[in-house]
Amino acid sequence: MARSLGTFLKGFQKLTFLPVVRTHLSQTLTCISPRSPVRTMVALPLPFFTKPRDFSLPNSSWGPEMLRLYEHYNSLTEVETLGGEKQEGPWQRLPSYNRSLKYATGGLYLSKFIQSKARLFTRNMRNPGAAFEYVIFFNKEKQRCVCIFQAGHLLEGPPGCVHGGAIATMIDTVTGTHASQLYEAVMTANLNINYRSPIPLGSTVFD
Ligand SMILES: CCCCCCCCCC(=O)SCCNC(=O)CCNC(=O)[C@H](O)C(C)(C)COP(=O)(O)OP(=O)(O)OC[C@H]1O[C@@H](n2cnc3c(N)ncnc32)[C@H](O)[C@@H]1OP(=O)(O)O
After folding, report:
1. CATH number at residue 78
2. Which of 1, 16, 30, 120 to mutate to test the pocket of ligand 1 (most atoms within 8 A of CB)?
3. Structural domain containing residue 94
4. Do the record's keywords include Membrane (predicted)?
5. How many domains does the chain divide into?
6. Whose alpha carbon is nearest atom 27 of ligand 1?
7. 3-class DSSP state for residue 28?
């Protein structure tokens, strides 16, 4: 594993253009330009041709607060002109899938088995509401992202509260997604978090 990781990092060292972006959360992200010579790109054929599930849409586990915030931002994704026509609004809901539809290995060798089984960490629970329920909205003009997150019962850390690693995961996901929207594909280089108050399991947080 260490050798594979070394190969992976060596692959990145060969990239020619890696500007670093610092966010207010003290997270450092490195942009990986698609023009850079990433060596291995594998487009995986999907095993079946059904539409992949979009996990950013409401499901039966979403509580009233999650739904209320979702409806608020979703209503801003479309505006009506004076002539009554619908137009794109300032906010955009970012769809979210549990697997990469086109799989880029970034120079790392991955077996076909792993490629077919790989799933996004935050979207790999079958039971709706058990872990990470979230939706991210993006405002291009204001360069802002908001995330509405409902913490499921499988994310327990301290009794009754969300695990710090799960919180870090969400922060990493949102800042990474935001940077990817503003720039290009990114890797997190550094993530520092001050935990100021616990998040009760089952509650909805928003930022
Ligand atoms: C579709 C769903 C999308 C969901 C989004 C999910 C987002 C999730 C994001 C992640 O979790 S990524 C996984 C966790 N991160 C990693 O595994 C990254 C591991 N680290 C690396 O691969 C490399 O260290 C990294 C690519 C980040 C940097 O390697 P480089 O070879 O480019 O570093 P280099 O030493 O050349 O430094 C380039 C610049 O970055 C700066 N830098 C590098 N590491 C840094 C660091 N840790 N802190 C601050 N600055 C850093 C460095 O000083 C330098 O600045 P300057 O250009 O100003 O000289």
Report:
1. 3.10.129.10
2. 30
3. 2-206
4. yes
5. 1
6. 189
7. strand
